[in-house]
Amino acid sequence: MTPSTLAGTCPECETNLTAPTMVTGETLVCPECMLTLRIEEVADGRMALRMVETRLSDWGQ
Predict the structure, then answer these.
(1) Percent of the chain topping pLDDT 90
(2) Model's pTM, two decimal places?
């Protein structure tokens, strides 16, 4: 990890993640389990991540 990157762990598959500097509320995708994750907090170069629930559209089919 460099000063311009953040580290975190996927709450679903526990994969260690690194990302460029981001802010609270931004999202990223875990490359292992493909979940969309939202950054809940950034402190001391670590990201606290939470799974974002996505709803699929029901097109009546």
Answers:
(1) 75
(2) 0.79
